[in-house]
Amino acid sequence: MHSSKASIVNVLAEDKCIIVDNVPCQCDFVLPVGVKAIEWDIDAGGHLIFKNESQYHSVNANDVHKMDEFYDKYVEPYVRLYNKEQDRLRILSDKKNRCHDVNECRRKKKYEILEKYKIAVNDYLKDYTAEEIQLFPQLYEGACIYLIKDIDGSDKPYTNKEMFNVQLLTNIADTRNMKISDLANDIIDEYKKYINVVGQLIGQKQRYLDQLNSLGKDTTIKLINAIDIHYTVIW
User: Fold this and answer.
1) Which end of the chain is more exposed for a tag (fewer CB within 10 A), N or C?
2) Of 2 and 73, the one with more pLDDT
3) Do 201 and 142 belong to one domain?
4) How far is CA 147 from CA 104, 153, 155, in A?
5) Whether residues 52 and 129 fall in one domain
6) Is 116 among the domain residues?
7) Rounded to the nearest 10 degrees, what angle do helices 180-214 and 76-124 cross at?
């Protein structure tokens, strides 16, 4: 027998199933009129099983010519259909696995972007305490308000919020034995440095996320890994 032939094939109409070498596959097919199953064994012969049990057609494995004819007419078309469906399912499986791998790589890259951002923030802002960072906007506002009134010589009363911020500034200056104006100028300078650092780091983080998000669903692991995460600050 020809070596390219499948060894064992069962085609079952009722189950819409083709079994090749003991591996089943659901397929959409139609058997010849009146036939409910096809059985093929390269060593035992071929059989057509009819819905009408009184009908029966078989070929003996020893009859090479009839076995070839039987295979070509009744078996090979379903083996081709089987192989086509198996290829389709394999492609779907590969796409699913690839999608999982790509999505996992994308998740890890996003995690890397955010974690390196946190490390960069902690590194560049290590000289500031969490409390100072939290109070920076209020101190900056208090410093600006104080200097404006000091320069203008305005006697316009502070709002409650302005009063709170200026008082915070005053308390710090008194404790450090500094002029309020000197402290105000120092705070404004420090706040500008702080905003410069934070703005650059946030911008870089968002740029990396934008690059990652711009890679569509058909992207590759290579393209994702090509996003090199490195945070820097220009003073």
Assistant:
1) C
2) 73
3) yes
4) 53, 10, 13
5) no
6) no
7) 170
